[in-house]
Amino acid sequence: MSDPQSKVQFQDISRNDLDRANASDYVHQFPKGLNKKIVQRISENKKEPSWMLDIRFRALETFEKLPLPTWGPDLSKLDFKNIRYFSTASENPHAKSWDEVSPEIKRTFERLRIPEAEKAVLAGVGAQYESENVYHNLKKEWDDQGVIFEDFDVAVQKYSDLVRKYFSKCVPILDHKFAALHYAVTSGGTFLYVPKGIKITQPLQAYFRMNSMNQGQFEHTLIIVEDEADAHYIEGCSAPKYGSQSLHAGCVEVFVGKGAKMRYSSVENWSKDTYNLNTKRAIVGDHGRMEWIGGNLGSGVTMLYPCSILVGNYAQADHLGVAFANAGQNQDTGAKVIIHGKNCRSKIVAKSLSKGGGTSTYRGMVSVSKNAQNAIVNVECDALMLDDHSLSDTIPHIKCENSTASITHEASAGKISEEVLLYFQSRGIDEEVAKGMIVNGFLDEIVKTLPLEYAAELNRLIELEMEGSIG
Amino acid sequence: MKLKNPTGTKRIVIDNNDVTTRHGAPLQITLEDFDRGSREFNLEVILKGENAHCEIQGRATAQGEDKKIWNVKQVFEGKNQIGKIELRGTASEKSFLQFDGTAELTHKSVDADAQVREKIILFDEARGKLLPILTVKTDKVLGASHSASIAPVSEDQLLYLQSRGISQKEAENVLREGFLK
């Protein structure tokens, strides 16, 4: 599936590629701040059906009423009035060929090796720049089998009934303040529909890029995997560093049918100015299987807790995550698993690293409800602290209302063992290189689940963080 | 120190001047609550002196409509300290049992060895909640780990006892007692 060249694809990515902004001519750049008029203009810009506008208005009202959370990282400095909620930079959005994409935007994605990866190893690609998809394509063989992989804005028009049936049914508008904000200003994103029995053998990818200062990105990803189907979706993202806030409040809704399997991998690498307040949730049916695999490296403040709700019997959810908090970062991540069905299983592995005064927190919730017989849940969290300024917290909530459940949790926090370091150094390996290798070993369990190219990217990004050249 | 049916809030500071632990002898705190009733108990132990060593063993049963909540915390503020929290409980009938165990390693702590272990066995329609928290503000840690589990009583062990003529209720009692020793 992958040729030898692609193995070195990400080796020479430098932080510059990600942090440097593009000079772009903007087609639309709405004024900063949020009010009913802006929401209306967003809807008009997309020529949406009226049911979408209704949802937006209800969401805006809810957003204004709900308070900020009183737990977790400090969000009080986030200035909602100083964020731009909508901009588009492309004359030809939703292009189906890279030739149709404007040159400067195309260059951004080329630097990130997206078009190359698409040819070689992906079934389809969506590329979003600011508030809009600039490119979205699916290989013909999957299109022929009835797979729908489309830019969300286009799907709202083209598959209106199907979208309306599922939209906001997994993550409700009232769920929390940032879900409400999301529904008010959502733009762009992906719609993926996999028909019964279809197993997509190559991953589908979406890449999100914020480019201008104080930009917000609110893409919506809606994935429906019908009975016995199988898909793997990968999401990557980045934004340049300006020294001024930007906000990401996206939302991912996944519906996993009977006997279906969905793997959702994501490597999140927003700049350190970004507040990443994303919501990801899946509802899993009988014998269904959901896998969340995530790397959180960027963002100044992250609050992200992928959630699996196992409603079917024999449903399964696996969560694998790594979070790296460097200087000035507060990564507050975790996993939520809520079990309603019988004989469900879940495994959660969370690894976190902290360095340079960064704070890394695992905040999890395992909840087994009254009628959920024979649930088995294992949670493993490990925290590695790379120097003496860093902070690490583990706060796993475990709630059980059924006496047949078996829930176990183990966690440890510590630093790189002196003995192990000495072992490497006594064999001529430099201390920094040794630390890098040990960190890779620590993360191995998660990295090996990613397709080779993304494993290489994740390794490279971690190397960059370890170098300490990041501000 | 043994506390029976503890309730309310208690704070203990282990300092070379206050409660002395010499030559690594641990301060043992035993918490026990096997009686009917609903109680909420908060315990905070601050380890200040060098080489302070504290082991907290808690055993609780909740029955009927009992609601029991224990919040036990050890705060590490010095060098070479050892702290262990082990909380075990069973809940049966319609009761509710909650254990919140926290190990807090402050930036003043050096080479701490912290362990938090929480285990609940549930019977009938009882409910349980566990929250083992680990807060670490230093990298000079000897070991900081915690584990928690909620499980049903072992089917195999129940069958073993029942196959020797012991009724299910009696077998559950025997296993409960063994677990809480």
Indicate the topology.
The complex is a heterodimer of chains A (471) and B (181).
Chain A: H1 15-19, E1 28-29, H2 36-46, H3 50-65, E2 87-88, H4 103-111, H5 114-121, E3 124-129, E4 132-138, H6 140-144, E5 148-151, H7 152-158, H8 160-166, H9 177-185, E6 189-194, E7 204-209, E8 216-217, E9 220-225, E10 230-238, E11 246-248, E12 251-256, E13 261-269, E14 274-276, E15 279-284, E16 289-296, E17 301-304, E18 307-310, E19 316-325, E20 330-333, E21 336-339, E22 345-354, E23 359-368, E24 376-385, E25 391-400, E26 406-415, H10 418-425, H11 431-447, H12 452-467
Parallel strand pairs in A: 3-7, 6-9, 7-10, 8-11, 9-12, 10-13, 11-14, 12-15, 13-16, 14-17, 15-18, 16-19, 17-20, 18-21, 19-22, 20-23, 21-23, 22-24, 23-25, 24-26
Antiparallel strand pairs in A: 1-2, 3-4, 5-6
Chain B: E1 2-4, E2 8-14, E3 27-33, E4 39-47, E5 53-62, E6 67-76, E7 82-91, E8 96-105, E9 112-122, E10 127-136, E11 141-152, H1 155-162, H2 168-179
Parallel strand pairs in B: 1-3, 2-4, 3-5, 4-6, 5-7, 6-8, 7-9, 8-10, 9-11
Short description:
The complex is a heterodimer of chains A (471) and B (181). Chain A has 471 residues and is an alpha/beta fold. Chain A is built from twelve helices and 26 strands.
List keywords for this structure.
heterodimer, A: 471 residues, alpha/beta, 26 strands, disordered N terminus, B: mainly beta, six-stranded parallel beta sheet, 11 strands
What count of domains describes the coordinates of chain A? 2
Number of strands of chain B: 11
Through-space gap between termini of chain B: 17 Å
Based on secondary structure, the structural category of chain A is alpha/beta
SS class of chain B: mainly beta
- How is the main sheet of chain B built? 6 strands, parallel
Q: Count of helices of chain A?
A: 12
Radius of gyration based on Cα positions of chain B: 18 Å
Write down the secondary-structure element order of chain B.
EEEEEEEEEEEHH
Average pLDDT of chain B, rounded to a whole number, is 90
Radius of gyration of chain A: 21 Å
Helix content of chain A: 25-40%
Distance between the termini of chain A: 37 Å
Q: Give the oligomeric state of the chains in this entry, treating copies of one chain as homo and distinct chains as hetero.
A: heterodimer
Q: Number of helical segments of chain B?
A: 2
